[in-house]
From TrEMBL:
Keywords for the protein's UniProt record, in alphabetical order: Membrane, Transmembrane, Transmembrane helix
GO molecular function, one term: phosphatidylcholine lysophospholipase activity
InterPro entries according to UniProt: Ester_Hydrolysis_Enzymes, SGNH_hydro, SGNH_hydro_sf
Domain SGNH hydrolase-type esterase: 61-271
Official protein name in the record: GDSL family lipase
Spans traversing the lipid bilayer: 12-36
Lineage of the organism: Bacteria, Bacillati, Bacillota, Bacilli, Lactobacillales
Pfam families referenced in this protein's UniProt entry, alphabetically: Lipase_GDSL_2
């Protein structure tokens, strides 16, 4: 009987010792997490307070394949995460982004999604910053439907229709959010790679961008971000590189995705992000 009592006490002591050791280890782990930092890192009370009180900025991206990020080989959403990081650094905010880009969308389809999808409407209402990529597929629609008889005049009426659709998009945003800053990216000219015979394409793109810019000028806290010269000229302004393989000549652009010579590649999306970030840096304090 005494032996059983003795064994019972020993067992309880062992359990208490194990519990004590585990508790000490847990406490040490927690303390280490807060006090032991990797070499070269600094965490002051000021830094901790800043992290806890950092303002949230809601960023909503709406548009076509350029917003979706087609051509981005990291599959992270093209320029959207890049711009989110840039805005975070510029304004010292915690950027939360939502990407509503759909490849192939024209201005009409983008407007339809905005007016039909509750999730997009809710995001717009809460947005502090909005970016829009629109227009490229409107131009492509003209090319596809009138390819056999395409002239510069083919784009005049579609450009007028496009301008009206843009106004509806902008008005819808303002009806749901009067204060968000909106950055609208212009379109660029990759068409010389796929349609080298249409020599007037640059004039057409310039006119299309001018139409967009004029429409934006009638809105408050909306800004046009030109990217044509940045992407059309390629990296370092090469305006495309012509390579020759015997009798075959190929024009490439080192800012565009090699698989389609149309969408930006990773470098192209960085260029786009930098352009919008510069515009944001200039205008973000305006009210």
């Amino acid at each position: 009987m005494k032996e059983n009592k003795y064994k019972g006490r020993v067992r309880r002591w062992l359990i208490e010792i194990v519990v004590f050791v585990v508790a000490i280890f847990a406490i040490f782990t927690v303390i280490s997490h807060f006090l032991i930092r990797p070499a070269g890192s600094e965490l002051s009370n000021k830094d901790l307070k800043s992290a806890l009180t950092q303002k949230r900025l809601n960023y909503v991206a709406i548009g076509d394949s350029l917003t979706e990020g087609v051509g981005d080989q990291t599959n992270q959403g093209g320029f959207i995460p890049l711009l989110s990081n840039a805005i975070s650094e510029i304004s010292d905010v915690n950027v939360v982004s939502q990407n509503f880009g759909v490849a192939g969308n024209t201005s009409t389809q983008i407007y339809k999604r905005m007016t039909k999808e509750k999730k997009i409407q809710s995001a717009i209402k809460k947005a502090d910053v909005i970016t829009i990529t629109v227009g490229g597929n409107d131009v492509m629609k003209v090319i596809r439907t009138q390819l056999t008889n395409l002239t510069e005049n083919s784009f005049e009426k579609p450009a007028q229709t496009y301008q009206k659709q843009l106004t509806e998009i902008f008005d819808f945003i303002r009806d749901n959010n009067p204060n968000a800053q909106v950055y609208v990216l212009g379109i660029y000219n990759p068409f010389y790679l796929n349609f080298p015979d249409i020599t007037e394409m640059q004039d057409i793109i310039n006119h299309w961008n001018q139409t967009t810019q004029e429409t934006i000028a009638q809105q408050k806290q909306m800004y046009f971000v030109p990217i044509n010269d940045l992407l059309y000229q390629g990296v370092n302004g090469s305006k495309g590189v012509t390579t020759s393989d015997g009798e075959v000549q190929t024009i490439t652009n080192n800012a565009l995705f090699e698989e389609d010579h149309f969408h930006p590649n990773n470098i192209g999306y960085q260029i786009m992000s930098d352009a919008v970030a510069e515009a944001y840096k200039e205008h973000h304090n305006e009210k």
